[in-house]
Fold this protein.
Amino acid sequence: MSGLPPLRDVIARHGLSASKALGQNFLFDEQLLDRIAAVPGDLAGRPVLEIGPGPGGLTRALLRAGAKVTAIERDARCLPALAELEEAFPGQLTVIEGDALDVDHDSLFDTPYAVVANLPYNVGTALLVDWLSAKAWPPAWTSLTLMFQREVADRIVAKEGSGTYGRLAVLAQWRSRASLAMKVHRSAFTPPPKVMSAIVHIEPTTMPEKVSPTILSRLTEAAFGQRRKMLRQSLKSVPGAIAALEAIGIEPTRRAETLSVADYVALAKELS
Ligand SMILES: C[S@@+](CC[C@H](N)C(=O)[O-])C[C@H]1O[C@@H](n2cnc3c(N)ncnc32)[C@H](O)[C@@H]1O
Protein backbone atom coordinates (compact mmCIF):
# COMPACT_ATOMS: atom_id res chain seq x y z
CA MET A 1 0.00 0.00 0.00
CA SER A 2 1.19 3.49 -0.78
CA GLY A 3 2.15 5.69 2.13
CA LEU A 4 4.15 3.11 4.07
CA PRO A 5 7.91 3.58 4.20
CA PRO A 6 10.11 0.79 2.76
CA LEU A 7 10.77 -1.94 5.35
CA ARG A 8 14.52 -1.39 5.17
CA ASP A 9 13.94 2.24 6.29
CA VAL A 10 11.70 1.09 9.15
CA ILE A 11 14.40 -1.25 10.38
CA ALA A 12 17.12 1.39 10.12
CA ARG A 13 14.99 4.04 11.83
CA HIS A 14 14.09 1.76 14.76
CA GLY A 15 17.56 0.20 14.99
CA LEU A 16 16.20 -3.33 14.48
CA SER A 17 19.38 -5.29 13.89
CA ALA A 18 18.40 -8.94 13.42
CA SER A 19 18.84 -10.98 16.62
CA LYS A 20 20.19 -14.47 16.05
CA ALA A 21 18.94 -15.61 19.45
CA LEU A 22 15.36 -14.75 18.43
CA GLY A 23 15.75 -16.44 15.04
CA GLN A 24 15.22 -13.17 13.20
CA ASN A 25 15.47 -13.36 9.41
CA PHE A 26 13.36 -10.62 7.91
CA LEU A 27 11.51 -10.51 4.59
CA PHE A 28 11.54 -7.18 2.73
CA ASP A 29 10.12 -8.06 -0.69
CA GLU A 30 6.57 -6.73 -0.54
CA GLN A 31 5.45 -8.68 -3.63
CA LEU A 32 6.63 -11.91 -2.05
CA LEU A 33 4.92 -10.94 1.22
CA ASP A 34 1.65 -10.26 -0.65
CA ARG A 35 1.91 -13.71 -2.27
CA ILE A 36 2.38 -15.33 1.15
CA ALA A 37 -0.59 -13.40 2.56
CA ALA A 38 -2.70 -14.69 -0.37
CA VAL A 39 -2.05 -18.37 0.46
CA PRO A 40 -4.94 -18.67 3.00
CA GLY A 41 -7.40 -17.23 0.43
CA ASP A 42 -9.47 -14.07 0.76
CA LEU A 43 -8.71 -12.53 4.16
CA ALA A 44 -10.90 -9.43 3.86
CA GLY A 45 -12.57 -8.89 7.23
CA ARG A 46 -11.24 -12.19 8.61
CA PRO A 47 -9.45 -12.59 11.95
CA VAL A 48 -5.82 -13.64 11.59
CA LEU A 49 -3.29 -14.64 14.23
CA GLU A 50 0.25 -13.72 13.24
CA ILE A 51 3.13 -14.97 15.34
CA GLY A 52 6.45 -13.13 15.20
CA PRO A 53 5.59 -10.03 13.14
CA GLY A 54 9.04 -8.51 13.78
CA PRO A 55 9.26 -5.21 11.88
CA GLY A 56 5.91 -6.01 10.26
CA GLY A 57 6.60 -7.06 6.66
CA LEU A 58 4.12 -9.93 6.58
CA THR A 59 1.81 -7.95 8.89
CA ARG A 60 1.55 -5.17 6.28
CA ALA A 61 0.67 -7.68 3.60
CA LEU A 62 -2.05 -9.21 5.79
CA LEU A 63 -3.45 -5.76 6.61
CA ARG A 64 -3.42 -4.80 2.92
CA ALA A 65 -5.45 -7.95 2.26
CA GLY A 66 -8.04 -6.59 4.71
CA ALA A 67 -7.37 -9.03 7.56
CA LYS A 68 -8.02 -8.15 11.20
CA VAL A 69 -4.67 -9.15 12.65
CA THR A 70 -3.73 -10.06 16.21
CA ALA A 71 0.05 -10.38 16.34
CA ILE A 72 2.22 -11.81 19.12
CA GLU A 73 5.84 -10.62 19.18
CA ARG A 74 8.47 -11.41 21.76
CA ASP A 75 10.97 -8.71 20.85
CA ALA A 76 9.92 -5.41 22.47
CA ARG A 77 12.27 -3.52 20.09
CA CYS A 78 9.75 -4.20 17.28
CA LEU A 79 6.76 -2.63 19.05
CA PRO A 80 7.28 1.01 17.88
CA ALA A 81 7.46 -0.14 14.22
CA LEU A 82 4.28 -2.18 14.72
CA ALA A 83 2.56 0.79 16.40
CA GLU A 84 3.07 2.71 13.14
CA LEU A 85 1.18 -0.03 11.30
CA GLU A 86 -1.62 0.13 13.87
CA GLU A 87 -1.97 3.80 13.01
CA ALA A 88 -1.81 3.26 9.27
CA PHE A 89 -4.55 0.59 9.40
CA PRO A 90 -6.92 1.87 12.12
CA GLY A 91 -8.86 -0.85 13.94
CA GLN A 92 -7.18 -3.66 12.01
CA LEU A 93 -4.16 -4.55 14.16
CA THR A 94 -3.71 -5.61 17.79
CA VAL A 95 -0.18 -6.33 19.00
CA ILE A 96 0.56 -8.47 22.02
CA GLU A 97 4.05 -8.50 23.48
CA GLY A 98 4.99 -11.97 24.68
CA ASP A 99 6.13 -15.50 23.94
CA ALA A 100 3.63 -17.18 21.61
CA LEU A 101 4.30 -20.49 23.36
CA ASP A 102 2.87 -19.06 26.61
CA VAL A 103 -0.26 -17.43 25.17
CA ASP A 104 -3.65 -19.19 24.90
CA HIS A 105 -4.35 -18.32 21.25
CA ASP A 106 -8.00 -19.38 21.24
CA SER A 107 -8.80 -16.93 24.05
CA LEU A 108 -7.78 -14.02 21.77
CA PHE A 109 -10.63 -14.65 19.33
CA ASP A 110 -14.45 -14.94 19.44
CA THR A 111 -14.63 -16.57 16.01
CA PRO A 112 -12.49 -19.04 14.04
CA TYR A 113 -9.21 -17.53 12.86
CA ALA A 114 -6.49 -18.17 10.30
CA VAL A 115 -2.89 -18.47 11.46
CA VAL A 116 -0.04 -17.00 9.42
CA ALA A 117 3.57 -16.94 10.60
CA ASN A 118 7.21 -16.75 9.65
CA LEU A 119 8.85 -18.14 12.76
CA PRO A 120 12.16 -19.50 13.98
CA TYR A 121 12.35 -23.23 13.31
CA ASN A 122 12.13 -24.59 16.86
CA VAL A 123 9.26 -22.33 17.91
CA GLY A 124 7.39 -23.07 14.67
CA THR A 125 7.56 -26.82 15.11
CA ALA A 126 6.49 -26.64 18.79
CA LEU A 127 3.52 -24.44 17.89
CA LEU A 128 2.60 -26.64 14.93
CA VAL A 129 2.46 -29.73 17.15
CA ASP A 130 0.27 -27.80 19.63
CA TRP A 131 -2.13 -26.60 16.91
CA LEU A 132 -2.39 -30.07 15.37
CA SER A 133 -3.00 -31.62 18.80
CA ALA A 134 -6.06 -29.44 19.56
CA LYS A 135 -8.60 -31.30 21.73
CA ALA A 136 -11.64 -29.98 19.85
CA TRP A 137 -11.89 -30.80 16.14
CA PRO A 138 -12.43 -28.87 13.95
CA PRO A 139 -10.12 -26.61 15.94
CA ALA A 140 -10.61 -22.87 16.50
CA TRP A 141 -8.12 -22.17 13.67
CA THR A 142 -9.36 -22.50 10.08
CA SER A 143 -5.91 -22.81 8.49
CA LEU A 144 -2.19 -22.66 9.29
CA THR A 145 0.10 -20.92 6.81
CA LEU A 146 3.62 -21.30 8.14
CA MET A 147 7.17 -20.75 6.96
CA PHE A 148 9.56 -23.59 7.75
CA GLN A 149 13.01 -24.72 6.77
CA ARG A 150 12.55 -26.67 3.55
CA GLU A 151 13.55 -29.93 5.25
CA VAL A 152 10.87 -29.52 7.93
CA ALA A 153 8.26 -28.55 5.32
CA ASP A 154 9.11 -31.76 3.45
CA ARG A 155 8.59 -33.79 6.64
CA ILE A 156 5.15 -32.23 7.20
CA VAL A 157 3.79 -33.01 3.71
CA ALA A 158 5.68 -36.31 3.15
CA LYS A 159 3.88 -39.39 1.85
CA GLU A 160 4.57 -43.00 2.84
CA GLY A 161 7.68 -44.53 1.31
CA SER A 162 9.72 -41.34 1.42
CA GLY A 163 12.70 -40.86 3.73
CA THR A 164 11.14 -37.74 5.26
CA TYR A 165 7.87 -39.51 6.15
CA GLY A 166 7.40 -39.93 9.89
CA ARG A 167 5.44 -38.86 12.96
CA LEU A 168 5.10 -35.25 11.86
CA ALA A 169 3.53 -36.28 8.52
CA VAL A 170 0.98 -38.53 10.24
CA LEU A 171 0.15 -35.85 12.80
CA ALA A 172 -0.26 -33.22 10.04
CA GLN A 173 -2.30 -35.42 7.72
CA TRP A 174 -4.59 -37.69 9.75
CA ARG A 175 -7.27 -35.02 10.20
CA SER A 176 -5.87 -32.17 8.07
CA ARG A 177 -4.76 -31.56 4.51
CA ALA A 178 -1.14 -30.33 4.36
CA SER A 179 0.46 -28.93 1.22
CA LEU A 180 3.61 -27.14 0.19
CA ALA A 181 2.31 -23.76 -0.93
CA MET A 182 5.51 -22.01 -1.94
CA LYS A 183 9.27 -22.44 -1.87
CA VAL A 184 11.19 -19.43 -0.60
CA HIS A 185 14.84 -18.92 -1.53
CA ARG A 186 17.24 -18.19 1.31
CA SER A 187 18.31 -14.97 -0.42
CA ALA A 188 14.81 -13.52 0.18
CA PHE A 189 15.69 -13.08 3.88
CA THR A 190 17.87 -10.52 5.63
CA PRO A 191 20.17 -11.90 6.88
CA PRO A 192 19.91 -15.01 4.66
CA PRO A 193 19.67 -18.25 6.67
CA LYS A 194 21.89 -21.21 5.76
CA VAL A 195 19.05 -23.28 4.31
CA MET A 196 16.10 -22.90 1.94
CA SER A 197 12.57 -22.32 3.28
CA ALA A 198 9.03 -23.17 2.25
CA ILE A 199 5.50 -22.20 3.16
CA VAL A 200 3.25 -25.02 4.32
CA HIS A 201 -0.52 -24.62 4.28
CA ILE A 202 -2.70 -26.83 6.47
CA GLU A 203 -6.50 -27.03 6.66
CA PRO A 204 -8.49 -29.25 9.02
CA THR A 205 -10.57 -32.05 7.48
CA THR A 206 -13.15 -34.31 9.11
CA MET A 207 -11.71 -36.24 12.01
CA PRO A 208 -11.98 -40.03 11.53
CA GLU A 209 -14.48 -41.50 13.97
CA LYS A 210 -13.53 -43.68 16.93
CA VAL A 211 -9.81 -43.00 16.78
CA SER A 212 -8.01 -42.01 19.95
CA PRO A 213 -5.36 -39.34 19.23
CA THR A 214 -3.36 -40.69 22.18
CA ILE A 215 -3.25 -44.20 20.75
CA LEU A 216 -2.37 -42.90 17.29
CA SER A 217 0.47 -40.90 18.80
CA ARG A 218 1.70 -43.91 20.81
CA LEU A 219 1.67 -46.06 17.67
CA THR A 220 3.64 -43.62 15.51
CA GLU A 221 6.10 -42.97 18.33
CA ALA A 222 6.82 -46.70 18.67
CA ALA A 223 6.82 -47.43 14.91
CA PHE A 224 9.02 -44.51 13.81
CA GLY A 225 11.16 -44.68 16.94
CA GLN A 226 12.63 -47.83 15.38
CA ARG A 227 11.87 -47.08 11.75
CA ARG A 228 14.35 -49.61 10.34
CA LYS A 229 12.84 -52.50 12.31
CA MET A 230 9.85 -54.58 11.23
CA LEU A 231 6.56 -53.59 12.85
CA ARG A 232 6.34 -56.88 14.75
CA GLN A 233 9.44 -55.69 16.61
CA SER A 234 8.90 -51.92 16.84
CA LEU A 235 5.26 -52.22 17.95
CA LYS A 236 5.94 -54.78 20.69
CA SER A 237 5.72 -52.02 23.29
CA VAL A 238 2.10 -51.17 22.32
CA PRO A 239 -0.29 -53.73 23.85
CA GLY A 240 -2.49 -55.40 21.22
CA ALA A 241 -0.77 -53.72 18.27
CA ILE A 242 0.59 -56.87 16.60
CA ALA A 243 -2.82 -58.57 16.75
CA ALA A 244 -4.43 -55.38 15.42
CA LEU A 245 -2.01 -55.37 12.46
CA GLU A 246 -3.09 -58.86 11.55
CA ALA A 247 -6.78 -58.08 12.10
CA ILE A 248 -6.67 -55.30 9.49
CA GLY A 249 -4.43 -57.23 7.09
CA ILE A 250 -1.11 -55.42 7.47
CA GLU A 251 1.91 -57.72 7.29
CA PRO A 252 3.87 -57.41 10.57
CA THR A 253 7.08 -57.75 8.55
CA ARG A 254 6.56 -54.29 7.04
CA ARG A 255 8.44 -51.22 8.27
CA ALA A 256 6.98 -48.01 9.69
CA GLU A 257 7.50 -45.85 6.61
CA THR A 258 5.57 -48.22 4.30
CA LEU A 259 2.25 -47.65 6.10
CA SER A 260 0.06 -44.83 4.80
CA VAL A 261 -1.60 -42.29 7.09
CA ALA A 262 -4.86 -44.18 6.48
CA ASP A 263 -3.15 -47.41 7.64
CA TYR A 264 -2.09 -45.75 10.91
CA VAL A 265 -5.61 -44.42 11.39
CA ALA A 266 -7.07 -47.89 10.78
CA LEU A 267 -4.62 -49.41 13.23
CA ALA A 268 -5.39 -46.82 15.90
CA LYS A 269 -9.13 -47.37 15.35
CA GLU A 270 -8.68 -51.11 15.85
CA LEU A 271 -6.95 -50.40 19.16
CA SER A 272 -9.13 -47.50 20.34
C1 LIG B 1 11.95 -15.11 11.13
S1 LIG B 1 11.50 -13.62 11.97
C2 LIG B 1 10.19 -13.07 10.95
C3 LIG B 1 9.80 -11.61 11.06
C4 LIG B 1 8.75 -11.10 10.10
N1 LIG B 1 7.48 -11.79 10.30
C5 LIG B 1 9.19 -11.26 8.66
O1 LIG B 1 8.63 -12.16 8.00
O2 LIG B 1 10.05 -10.51 8.21
C6 LIG B 1 10.74 -14.33 13.40
C7 LIG B 1 10.06 -13.36 14.37
O3 LIG B 1 9.51 -14.13 15.45
C8 LIG B 1 9.81 -13.52 16.69
N2 LIG B 1 9.79 -14.56 17.72
C9 LIG B 1 10.75 -15.47 17.98
N3 LIG B 1 10.37 -16.30 18.96
C10 LIG B 1 9.10 -15.92 19.31
C11 LIG B 1 8.16 -16.39 20.27
N4 LIG B 1 8.44 -17.44 21.04
N5 LIG B 1 6.97 -15.77 20.36
C12 LIG B 1 6.67 -14.69 19.57
N6 LIG B 1 7.53 -14.21 18.66
C13 LIG B 1 8.72 -14.81 18.51
C14 LIG B 1 11.15 -12.86 16.46
O4 LIG B 1 11.41 -11.82 17.38
C15 LIG B 1 11.02 -12.37 15.02
O5 LIG B 1 10.44 -11.08 14.97
About this structure: The chain has a mean pLDDT of 96. Strands lie at 26-27, 47-51, 68-73, 93-97, 113-118, 141-149, 176-184, 189-190, 197-204.
